[in-house]
Amino acid sequence: MPILRRLFCLSLLIGLAACSTNPPPGIHVVGNFDIQRYAGRWYEIARLDHSFERGMSDVSATYTLQQDGSVQVLNRGYQESESKWKEAVGRALFNSTPDVASLKVSFFGPFYGGYHVIALDPDYRWALVAGNDNSYLWILARDKQLPQTTIDHLLDQARQAGFDTQALIWIKQNRQQPVERSQ
After folding, report:
1. Is residue 11 part of a domain?
2. Considering its fold, how many domains does the chain have in total?
3. CA-CA distance, 20 to 87, in Å (whole number)?
4. CA dist 84 to 33, 34, 80, 175, Å?
5. pLDDT digits (tens, 9 = 90+) for 3-45
6. Closest CA to 101 of 154, 34, 45
7. CA-CA distances (angstroms) from residue 110 to 48, 106, 157?
8. Quick count: other Cβ atoms within 10 Å of Cβ 8?
9. In the chain, which residues have pLDDT < 70?
10. Residue 7 located in a structural domain
11. pTM: predicted TM-score of the whole model, two decimal places
12. For residue 121, is it within any domain?
């Protein structure tokens, strides 16, 4: 039995190593990216549904550059069904150089997912973020709301990139965020 367990673990590790954290085919990420300007709190305006945020409102992400060049990610949201705030702390690493907005993020040890900024306001006021495939998409903003003209522009970009914008969930942002805990 120990040999089977070792073979299973080895095949799992090989499989994980083969997992891509690249953007979906045909999707281009933002260049001339400045993580210093991107750092700070972003509010989730809309997202495609996925299990790890299901049922949450008032979702935000706070990005903090670390001394080793990684980025701490603090995701926070209000779980409606439990009437309480939940948060997860992760770590993001650049897939190539820090001036290319393509990262891999882990909240669970060695398991990484893609985080690719595919559209970004020149003043870093809003961002369109994709995952590894077309089932992950977020519209983020520095403020809890965006003008409709900006939303229409982002929806058009997302549609052109092959995302199902009809499936987006629009996030309520009504609650005051809890105080940031010390980093």
Report:
1. no
2. 1
3. 25
4. 35, 34, 7, 11
5. 433 333 333 333 333 355 888 788 899 999 999 999 999 999 9
6. 34
7. 24, 7, 32
8. 10
9. 1-20, 180-183
10. no
11. 0.86
12. yes
Please provide the DSSP assignment of the chain as one string.
-HHHHHHHHHHHHHHHHH---SPPTT----SS--HHHH-EEEEEEEEE--GGGTTEEEEEEEEEE-TTS-EEEEEEEEEGGGTEEEEEEEEEEESS-TTS-EEEEEEETTEEEEEEEEEE-TTSSEEEEE-SSTT-EEEEESSS---HHHHHHHHHHHHHTT--GGGEEEPP--SPPPPPPP-
pLDDT digits (tens, 9 = 90+) for 99-108: 999 999 999 8
CA distance 139 to 119: 10
- d(CA 36, CA 123) in angstroms, rounded, equals 12
Q: Which range of residues forms the domain containing residue 30? A: 22-170
Residue 175 lies in a domain: no
CATH of residue 70's domain is 2.40.128.20
